[in-house]
Write a structure and sequence with these properties.
This protein has two domains: 2-149, Endonuclease, Chain A (2-Layer Sandwich); 185-429, Protein of unknown function DUF1054 (BirA Bifunctional Protein, domain 2). It starts with a strand and ends with a helix. The protein has a nine-stranded mixed β-sheet with strand order 1-2-8-7-6-3-4-5-9, sandwiched between helices. A six-stranded antiparallel β-sheet has the order 10-11-12-15-13-14. Helix 3 (65-73) runs antiparallel to helix 6, helix 8 packs across helix 13 (411-429) and helix 11 crosses helix 12. It is α+β, with helices and mostly antiparallel strands. 32% of the residues are buried. Strand 4, helix 3 (65-73) and strand 5 form a beta-alpha-beta unit. It is built from 13 helices and 15 strands. The protein has helices at residues 14-22, 37-46, 65-73, 113-118, 129-143, 151-182, 203-207, 219-246, 284-294, 328-340, 342-353, 376-383, 411-429; strands at residues 2-3, 8-11, 27-32, 52-58, 79-84, 93-98, 102-107, 123-127, 147-148, 276-281, 305-310, 315-322, 360-363, 366-369, 393-399. Helices cover 41% and strands 18% of the residues. The longest helix has 32 residues, at 151-182.
Length: 433
């Protein structure tokens, strides 16, 4: 959390800060486009029974019917919930807490597990009575327009919600089928049946990401992820001397402990650590210059980088142009030039098309083979809708755990060859300052 002024603070993980304020709360007002069971359960666990709670919930996004059922069944006269059903897409994320101080949280995250901490979100925490009153007036205006939850309303809503779930499940199946086609219908092998004798990453490295382990914070699971971190540092010792020898302007993090991504949960990590990675990008002086020109959040985490990632079922070699809400300067410059310069579009098309068939590009969660674009205009149509705030922009390839390319003998060459193939694209995207 960074201070913006004496009364306004920037909050990355809402759950931690909100939980502190809820301990002394006598009144809480929340308006959210969507509320999940996890969000509601967290709230009810944190507050006292005497606390006055007002919830205004949207249904333009799929709030589960189970949330409304729980609220309908609550036996607490201090809690009142309403649904916003008027015209217009209901999309606010406002949290007002009256306790030891009058506090406002306003930002990007819905009252869900993702909004509270799993996603990359951004909030402002405002500790100011006048601001609290101003936002409370806004809340009351819309709360008075809300509809009370009844059994008849819930029955009708459940039909809609189940229909939306069926559509969402169908979409997920389509995406799954697409990914299978994209990967040449590769069948992910049973990890426990693979002979890892000659593989760089062993079975226990992959199993550090199985089942619910990405969400766990226990000492045992941290130790498993720490072993993955040490293995990635071993890979760094193999490949970084060659990066230096080749004279590539690629740099690890300036602090050794951050050359590999974090193996423990923290304020700047996702709550689901489903991968660890080794990464190279801008030098520290370049990052300092970006910070000087563009403000905070200019660490290597938010910048374009070449990476080797290990997950449960893959090892990936990627050029991450940007994570969600990351690589903003490069991506905005890229979008602007793609829209305005025909020669720039042609260069990008030629660079991407020069990659091998097993390389893909991802925009807004959709993956396409690099060879699938017939013209520069086709490619432009695909990338022009890059949602910088919400999605990753990735180019790269992946290997199954038993692939010979990631054996002990070959993995360093595989990583370096991948970096060399994607380096022209890295330089193409890289904004010069």
């Amino acid at each position: 959390m960074d201070t913006i002024s004496s009364k306004v603070m920037k909050v990355i993980k809402l759950k931690t800060q909100l939980s502190q304020e809820l301990q002394s709360a006598s009144e809480i007002y929340i308006a959210s486009a969507i509320v999940s069971d996890a969000g509601l359960d967290f709230l009810l666990k944190e507050i006292s029974k005497d606390c006055k709670l007002r919830l205004l919930i949207g249904i333009d996004l799929p709030t589960p019917d189970s949330v409304f059922k729980k609220l309908l069944e609550l036996d607490n006269e201090n809690i009142e919930a309403k649904v916003f059903t008027k015209q217009g897409f209901f999309h606010p994320k406002l949290y007002l807490v009256n306790g030891d101080s009058k506090t406002v949280f306003i930002g990007s995250g819905n009252f869900t597990e993702g909004g509270l901490g799993n996603n990359i979100e951004l909030f402002h925490k405002i500790s100011d009575s006048a601001a609290f009153s101003d936002y409370l007036n806004w809340f009351n205006q819309y709360f008075n327009l809300g509809e009370t939850i009844t059994e008849d309303w819930l029955k009708e809503y459940s039909l809609l919600y189940n229909e939306r779930n069926d559509l969402e499940a169908n979409d997920k199946r389509k995406v799954g089928d697409f990914k299978k086609r994209l990967s040449g219908n590769k069948v992910i092998p049973d990890l426990r049946k693979i002979d890892f004798t000659n593989q760089f990453f062993k079975l226990h490295h992959h199993l550090a990401f199985e089942e619910n382990k990405p969400n766990l914070r226990t000492a045992q699971v941290n130790n498993e992820r720490f072993a993955v971190r040490e293995k990635l540092l071993e890979l760094h010792e193999l490949i970084y001397p060659f990066i230096q020898k080749k004279g590539w302007n690629l740099h690890p993090h300036s602090m050794k402990e951050h050359i590999v991504s974090s193996y423990q949960h923290g304020e700047y990590t996702s709550d689901s650590l489903n991968a660890l990675w080794l990464h190279y990008g801008r030098s520290q002086p370049e990052l300092d210059k970006f910070k000087e020109l563009f403000g905070e959040n200019q660490t290597s985490l938010y910048h374009m980088r070449l990476q080797v990632l290990i997950r449960l079922s893959q090892v990936q070699v990627w050029l991450t142009v940007g994570k969600n809400n990351g690589g903003v300067v490069d991506r905005e410059n890229f979008k602007k030039r793609m829209n305005e310069e025909e020669e720039y579009r042609s260069r990008f098309f030629n660079l991407l098309s020069s990659l091998p068939h097993n390389y893909s590009i991802s925009i807004n969660g959709e993956w396409k083979e690099v060879k699938s674009f017939k013209t520069a205009n086709d490619l432009h149509q695909f990338v022009k809708h890059d949602e910088i705030r919400n999605h990753y922009f990735i180019i790269g390839t992946e290997y199954l755990p038993d692939a010979i390319e990631i054996s002990e003998k070959n993995i360093a060459n595989t990583a370096l060859n991948g970096f060399e193939k994607m380096l022209p694209l890295y330089l193409f995207f890289k904004t010069k300052i």
